[in-house]
Amino acid sequence: MGRAFEFRKGRKMKRWSAMAKAFTRIGKDIVMAVKEGGPNPEANSRLRAVIQNSKAVNMPKENVERAIKKATDKDTANYKEVLFEGYAPHGIAILVETATDNNNRTVANVRSYFNKCNGTMGTQGSVEFMFDHTCNFRIPANGIDPEELELELIDFGAEEIFEDDDGILIYAPFGSFGTIQKELENRGLEILSSGFERIPQITKKLIEAEVADVEKLIEKLEEDDDVMNVYHTMEEE
To answer: Which residues form the TACO1/YebC-like second and third domain (predicted)?
Structure first.
């Protein structure tokens, strides 16, 4: 198995655990998707992907429809995706993906979390290069051979495909998202969920006390409503 498999195994059950938080994030994704490509999922591949993800976290259909309708209102604020970089204690690189309608608030909040947890905010590009920006898709296993599927999807950008308890996962570079999404749809394969992740190229093993220091910062960041994802270079069990 490759790095994507190990990364997914380490993060399993540790992210998006709070249902209310997941709904909030989906709601923001819907607004950004609609503002970018319109409210029709058939003509908006990004919105189709978000709707698939809403089903994966059991978000009620009426909530999704309400969010789409709200997003079409010109008075609804749009969210801007902003990436923050820095270091947690013990030399652990941190990437923070946010979606905000008030950049000043988000900057102030994120900086305060780093300061309170003995971390350091970095400049743009200071740690982003340590992570591979990837896209991923989850489809039902349904008797599909992951190795055979990997051979078939290599030409569309797929780099790693493996099976876990919840289906088959497909990983590819960030830029291959649209190509693979279209190919899976053309094949009539159901996409259970999809998204983007940043996989650390190298991880660092810490002792238990050091892990606690880093987890304190990660938890502070993840509790913020503007924060969508937090990635780090700490080795996870």
So the answer is: 79-234
Backbone torsions φ then ψ of 33, nearest 5 degrees = -65, -45
3-state secondary structure of 166: coil
| pTM summary value | 0.89
Strand duo 167-173 + 92-100: pairing: unpaired
Tokens of 129: 């290069």
pLDDT tens column, 23-69: 888 999 999 999 999 999 999 999 999 999 999 888 999 999 999 99
The CA distance from 228 to 96, in Å, is: 8
Structure tokens belonging to residue 15 = 């992210």
Q: Give the residue among 220, 225, 171 at the shortest CA–CA distance from 198.
A: 171
Positive or negative CA dihedral for 173, 176, 181, 183?
negative
Token match 């013990």: residue?
90
Report the candidate in 184, 183, 178, 172 with the shortest Cα–Cα distance to residue 142: 184
CA distance 118 to 113: 9
Supply φ then ψ for residue 132, to 5 degrees: -90, 125
